Amino acid sequence: MKQSLALITLVVSNYDDAIAFYTDVLGFDLIDDTYQPEQDKRWVVVKPKGGGDASVLLAKASNAEQSDRVGDQTGGRVALFLQTDNFERDYAAYQSKGVKFVRAPKTEPYGTVAVFADLYGNLWDLIEFSKA
């Protein structure tokens, strides 16, 4: 059997703001943005450049319970891990675009990592794994 992780959902407040952050600031590709009239919502998928199978589904909150989860979908823990082949390049690029890093870069036995918040406050690791 072969399986892979295809999509991870992030609940957002606004489709267009989320698309702008993930594409213009983080440099992700917009894979799909299709209106679904039967559900009155959009199917919005973004994906980091450069390979990998997993993409992020940006799902607009549709009720109060979902709205309460925007930006804190994991109770304050790091939600997602963005692997890079060049930590210094991406860290500098993100800083220049105003990405808020909440933990400074740190070198660990497994690699170099820093934690940043997306536009809603979800925490991400930017990580370059050690070559071992």
Offer a quick outline of the entry:
The chain has 132 residues and is of the alpha/beta class. It contains three helices and eight strands, in the order E-H-E-E-E-H-E-H-E-E-E.
What does this entry look like structurally?
There is one protein chain. The protein is an alpha/beta fold and 132 residues long. It has 3 helices and 8 strands; from the N terminus they run βαβββαβαβββ. A 4-stranded mixed sheet has the order 1-4-3-2. A 4-stranded mixed sheet has the order 5-8-7-6, covered by helices on one side. Strand 3 (41-47) and strand 4 (55-60) form a beta hairpin. The chain is globular and about 50 Å long.
Show the helix and strand layout.
Blueprint: E1 7-12, H1 15-25, E2 29-36, E3 41-47, E4 55-60, H2 64-69, E5 78-83, H3 87-96, E6 100-108, E7 111-117, E8 123-129
Parallel strand pairs: 1-4, 5-8
Antiparallel strand pairs: 2-3, 3-4, 6-7, 7-8
Structure classification: alpha/beta
How many β strands by DSSP? 8
Total count of helical runs of at least 4 residues: 3
How would you describe the shape?
globular
What ranges have pLDDT less than 50 throughout 5 or more consecutive residues? none
CA distance, first residue to last residue:
27 Å
What characterizes the major β-sheet? Answer: 4 strands, mixed
How much of the sequence lies in strands comes to 35-45%
Mean pLDDT: 95
Secondary-structure element order, as H and E?
A: EHEEEHEHEEE
Give me the side-by-side strand order of the main sheet.
1-4-3-2
What's the alpha carbon Rg, rounded to whole Å?
15 Å
| Estimated helix fraction | 10-25%
